[in-house]
Amino acid sequence: MSQRETWATRVGFILAAVGSAVGLGNVWQFPFQTGANGGAAFIVVYLAAVFLIGFPAMLAEFVIGRRAERNPIDAFARLGHRDWRVVGVLGTLSAFWILAFYSVVGGWVIRYIVGSATGAYFSGSEAYFGAIAAGPDAVGLHAVFMALTVGVVALGVTDGIERSTKLMVPSIVLLLGGLAVWAVTLDGGGAGYAYYLSPDIDTLVANIGSILPAAVGQAFFTLSLGMGAMLTYASYLGRDDSLPADGATIVVLNTFVGLLAGLVVFPILFSLGIEPGSGGLGAAFITLAGAFAQLPAGRLLGVVFFVVLLLAALSSAISLLEVVTAYLVDNTDRSRSTLAVALGAAIFALGVPSAFGLPILSWYNAIAYNLLLPLSVLCLLLFVGWVDTDDAVAELRRGTGLGEGGAVAWLWFVRTVVPLGVLVTLLLGLQSLAV
Ligand code: PHE
Ligand code: NA
Q1: DSSP 8-state secondary structure symbol assigned to residue 333
Q2: CB of 303 within 8 A of CB of 113?
Q3: Transmembrane ranges (predicted)?
Q4: Model's pTM, two decimal places?
Q5: DSSP code per residue over 197-220
Q6: Cα of 72 to ligand 1 centre, how many Å?
Q7: Whole-angstrom Cα distance, residue 150 to residue 345?
Q8: Cα distances (Å, whole numbers) of residue 296 to 27, 266, 288, 303, 307
Q9: Considering only CA atoms, which of 373, 352, 279, 364 is closest in space to residue 104?
Q10: Quick one: residue 378, left, alpha or beta (phi over 0 = left, psi -120 to 50 = alpha)?
Q11: In angstroms, how far is CA 122 from the centroid of its own chain?
């Protein structure tokens, strides 16, 4: 078997991981989750969830991946615990499942770039979404998005993923930053900043039961945890840089992009008197497109915004495809490109039903979000916290100045606070699936 690939540079790994993290979850879901959960009050809980629960959990994935230098399934066997491979299977299947409908949404984004340029949705945003979100056209664009994803993964870890994310991630930050600066000039946008940036403690306390699971779920999704994506990316490290330092950089950059997206979305909506409320998967598209239609230079703004969204979605989708591809690359003699194409085709097929109706897509999403993701994160945490303990602590400290105490503090987080947070989210999420 040929030599396993590794990242060419440390920055390359960090940007690839940020690319995985920054996705539809930040730019599209986060502002609207915030809107649905009482504005800034939600953000406070979300930030706590990201740093206290998401960050330690990300380090747990890194520790397994870097030490095992294998895909999520074989990683557990390599670390001497064959029985735990089922956790890797769960993560890998989750990646497969999520990419299936994530790609359908990616297809919508491509459509909205074109629709912005031509002004196609300017005469009726809701009707436009209804027309494009489901049906043969949605399937076609799902295929296009999947083909782009396959193209990058087929080129390999360094030549495909590392190279492309090195371009995509800085572009996302620059374009989104430009939009945020432009948004400052909007009349009446001030109410948006107030809503977004000044937490209302009463709202927070009154709704903590729904805010907490939403915030924790969002933290996991946005950090790409539970699907083996971060584990797989860390398996290509082959170097001794500090995992906590790299992880912190990734978490901070991802949070920064999410907050930046809010600084674009909220002033736009409030300047037009639009409530950012809830409303499911399609609402963000309908609401935002409706806003662009009313703004001067709305076409240009729409194109830029949806290009950002496409880059974000693509850099996440490749990490999902890489999880599944890595398993076969590690275990067969076929070429990476053949495997990526075959897997892309299979995942495309799985996603087709969700391109035929929004309720189906929402159902795919709910399964992933409320069941697969928390369950898989929970198992991973139990493994690192209670089974692979000593080796995990040593691996975390490798290449760092981190003392024994710091590593043990992390371990206790991974043993207690983090799984408890996940468990609560899982139970509340299951409850929402049942109703
Ligand atoms: N983090 C991505 C987002 O915010 C989604 C994702 C989840 C990507 C899991 C890869 C793995 O959109
Ligand atoms: Na991304």
Answers
A1: S
A2: yes
A3: 7-28, 40-65, 86-110, 139-161, 173-196, 216-236, 248-270, 276-293, 300-321, 341-361, 368-387, 407-430
A4: 0.95
A5: HS--HHHHHHTHHHHHHHHHHHHH
A6: 16
A7: 9
A8: 22, 17, 14, 13, 19
A9: 352
A10: alpha
A11: 29
Is the minimum distance from the CB of 115 to ligand 1 under 6 angstroms? no
Ligand 1 pocket, 254 CB below 6 A? no
Rounded-to-integer distance, Cα 245 and Cα 7, Å: 17
Q: Whole-angstrom Cα distance, residue 349 to residue 352? A: 5
Backbone angles phi, psi at 340, to 5 degrees: -65, -40
- Sequence-separated (6 or more) residues with CB below 8 Å from residue 339: 325, 328, 329, 332
**Which atom of ligand 1 has the smallest separation from the CA of 313?**
12
Residue 427 has which token pair?
A: 């139970």
What's the pLDDT at 343? Answer: 98
Amino acid at 383: F
Helices and strands counted in the chain (H then E): 23, 0
Q: For the chain, how far is it from start to end, CA to CA, in angstroms?
A: 50
Q: Is 319 in the pocket of ligand 1 (CB under 6 A)?
A: yes
On whether the CB atoms of residues 369 and 225 are closer than 8 A, the answer is no
Do the beta carbons of residue 60 and residue 392 sit within 8 Å?
yes
pLDDT, one tens digit per residue, over 107-151 is 999 999 999 999 999 999 999 998 999 999 999 999 999 999 999
41 CA to middle of ligand 1, Å?
23
Structure tokens at 302: 């729409």
Report whether 315 contacts 168 (CB < 8 A): yes
* Alpha helices per DSSP H over 119-226: 125-133, 136-154, 163-184, 190-197, 201-206, 208-222
Do residues 223 and 377 lie in contact, with contact meaning Cβ atoms separated by under 8 Å? no
pLDDT band at 78 (very low <50, low <70, confident <90, very high): very high
C-alpha–C-alpha distance, residues 241 and 9, integer Å: 11
Topology of the domain covering 10-434? Amino acid/polyamine transporter I (1.20.1740)
DSSP code for 240: -
